[in-house]
């Protein structure tokens, strides 16, 4: 009897258990820029990329923490590792870091955004933006946009967003991106940021068609990282004593990101969402292209890439 297929919305369960793609392709000499690389998924990614011979550029907010990682990567893999600092809750810093990348690196072969946060209470940035939306979506959007020409000059090049199955929580409301009119729910705010990232990813993919630059998003698995540790003691207790035991080693995220960055069979694959390495259909609300174009415009405006109204 043929195996019954799960509905699209539940395929992530099957995909999380599937055999994942791997590659032996080398990234020797390729310049890989990775945001959020001081912890968790991003850290697993830079370790794996360094093992594959890549030159690493860590984009992070804590230089001291990054310096410790830099020394280990250089000693273990003999690659070059450079550090560019930016707090993604401050778009000015993201702008300056983008300029530093343009000034310091004549080619960028791979850009991975793993920077991310989950907050149970609403906070705002110095620009007055809701923090999760700014760090998870607007900051990476701004940096990606600023680096587009450099990536095109470096083609073939790949952009990978570390997104999340959490986009399925929804929560995106164009009339209230700042969560001023609604009761704040952390998971929905997280869902909103990840939905906005996916919706603008399809737009980037269209923009980049034929340029030799691909852009894809992925869920990095459910892995043991520091995400959520910025929240209150009760939340942290739950993470430590309940969730932690259900999670996997982020080494699987590093492997998946390496595959997406290096696998020759993905050279021309763009505008897809992967569960680790398995191509998956996102939630319907993240496929609404008309909404996506409005989110694109709002993202350009909020990041100062186009003037406000
Ligand atoms: N863990 C999971 O199971 C899971 C599942 C789905 C999706 N994800 C996604 O995976 C990505 C990485 O998260 P993670 O789980 O690896 O969490 P993590 O261990 O907390 O790592 C997050 C990274 O982002 C950095 N970061 C956070 N806020 C920042 C800011 N304002 N400016 C600059 N950098 C900042 C952190 O820097 P510091 O080291 O300085 O804190 C760290 O390097 C996120 O996009 C998350 O949504 C994770």
Could you estimate the helical fraction of the residues in percent? 40-55%
- Strand residues, percent: 5-15%
| Largest sheet composition | 8 strands, mixed
**What order do the strands of the largest sheet run in, or round the barrel if closed?**
3-2-1-4-5-6-7-8
- Bound ligands: NADP nicotinamide-adenine-dinucleotide phosphate
Order of helices and strands: HEHEHEHEHEHEHHEEH
Total number of strands: 8
Mean pLDDT: 96
Helix run count: 9
Low-confidence stretches are none
Overall shape? globular
The separation of the N and C termini measures 59 Å
Structural class: alpha/beta
Query: Radius of gyration from the CA trace?
Result: 18 Å
General description of the model:
By secondary structure, the chain is an alpha/beta fold. It has helices at residues 11-17, 40-51, 63-77, 91-104, 131-153, 186-208, 233-241, 251-262, 289-302, and strands spanning 31-35, 55-60, 81-85, 110-113, 157-162, 213-219, 273-275, 278-280. An eight-stranded mixed beta sheet has the order 3-2-1-4-5-6-7-8, sandwiched between helices. Helix 2 packs across helix 8 and helix 5 (131-153) runs parallel beside helix 6 (186-208). The structure holds NADP nicotinamide-adenine-dinucleotide phosphate (NAP).
């Amino acid at each position: 009897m043929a195996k019954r297929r799960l509905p699209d919305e539940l395929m992530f369960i099957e995909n999380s258990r599937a055999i994942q793609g791997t590659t032996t392709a080398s990234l020797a000499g390729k310049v890989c820029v990775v945001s959020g690389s001081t912890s968790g998924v991003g850290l697993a990614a830079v370790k794996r990329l360094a093992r594959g011979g890549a030159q690493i550029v860590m984009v992070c907010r804590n230089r001291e923490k990054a310096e410790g990682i830099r020394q280990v990567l250089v000693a273990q893999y003999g690659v070059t590792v450079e550090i560019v600092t930016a707090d993604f809750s401050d778009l000015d810093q993201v702008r300056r870091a983008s300029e530093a990348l343009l000034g310091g690196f004549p080619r960028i072969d791979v850009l991975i955004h793993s920077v991310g946060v989950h907050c149970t209470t609403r906070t705002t940035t110095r620009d007055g933006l809701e923090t999760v939306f700014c760090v998870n979506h607007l900051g990476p959007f701004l940096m990606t946009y600023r680096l587009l020409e450099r990536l095109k000059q470096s083609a073939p090049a790949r952009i990978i967003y570390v997104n999340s199955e959490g986009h399925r929580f929804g929560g995106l409301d164009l009339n209230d991106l700042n969560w001023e009119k609604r009761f704040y729910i952390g998971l929905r705010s997280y869902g909103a940021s990840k939905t906005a990232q996916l919706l603008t990813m399809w737009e980037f993919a269209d923009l980049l068609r034929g340029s030799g630059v691909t852009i894809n998003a992925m869920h990095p698995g459910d892995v043991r990282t520091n995400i959520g540790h910025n929240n209150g003691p009760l939340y942290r207790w739950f993470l430590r004593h309940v969730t932690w035991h259900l999670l996997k080693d982020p080494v699987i995220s590093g492997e998946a990101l390496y595959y997406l960055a290096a696998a020759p069979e993905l050279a021309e694959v763009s505008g897809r969402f992967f569960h680790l390495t398995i191509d998956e259909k996102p939630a319907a609300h993240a496929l609404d292209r008309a909404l996506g174009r409005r989110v694109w415009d709002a993202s350009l405006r909020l990041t100062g890439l186009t003037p406000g109204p």
